[in-house]
Amino acid sequence: MTARPHLRQRRCPRLRPVARAQRGVYAIEFAFTFLLLFGLIYTIICYGILLTYRMALQNAAEEGARAALRYQPDITARLAEAENVARLRVQGWWPGALDAPEPKADLVQEGAICGPEWANRCSIQVSITMDLVDDDNGKHLFALPMPEFALPDSLTGQASVLLEGGGT
């Protein structure tokens, strides 16, 4: 068998310098794409952690507000029960490195007295605020490695319940 030179694959001298110039382009494209995707995923995870804390505060406030609906002899006992239940819910999951936020229950009156009429309706509002900024030096207390401009100054959970029959 004789070699047929016209069937043999020829190298094209014009394409060789272009291919050599394209070496490493895929690695650079991957690096840029990876940085963008990693930053996006990292941001989603960090904000997911913040939203988890926010929802836990909201759930604790709602539990405290529901506890205020249980029978108590007077309004002050209802407020104390709401604060105690909310405090217990927060302390159950709160990280030990930070001080747990204190819940606050307030009586909101529409009229001069609490009564069964709509004009004299009363409600109990339970709120829990977690300050994320230290008052002394202005630094964020939260342990997320994110830029400070991207973190909120506080997280708040708030719930209210309408008391029937004057709230007694």
Structural features, described:
Helices cover 41% and strands 16% of the residues. It has one domain. It has helices at residues 15-21, 25-69, 75-91; strands at residues 103-109, 122-131, 154-163. It is built from 3 helices and 3 strands; from the N terminus they run H-H-H-E-E-E. Helix 2 (25-69) runs antiparallel to helix 3. The chain has 168 residues and is an alpha+beta fold. The radius of gyration is 31 Å and the shape is elongated. The longest helix is centred in the first third of the chain and has 45 residues, at 25-69.
SSE blueprint and pairings:
Elements: H1 15-21, H2 25-69, H3 75-91, E1 103-109, E2 122-131, E3 154-163
Helix pairs in contact: 2-3
List keywords for this structure.
168 residues, alpha+beta, 3-stranded antiparallel β-sheet, 3 helices
Q: Could you tell me the strand content as a percent range?
A: 15-25%
Order of helices and strands: HHHEEE
* Overall residue-averaged pLDDT value: 80
What is the count of structural domains?
1
List the uncertain runs: none
Q: Which percent bin holds the helix content?
A: 40-55%
Note the gap between the termini.
110 Å
| Number of separate strands | 3
Strand order of the largest sheet: 1-2-3
Radius of gyration, CA atoms, in whole angstroms: 31 Å
Report the total helices.
Answer: 3
Q: What class would the helix/strand composition place it in?
A: alpha+beta
Could you give a short account of the major beta sheet? Answer: 3 strands, antiparallel
Query: What general outline do the C-alpha atoms trace?
Result: elongated
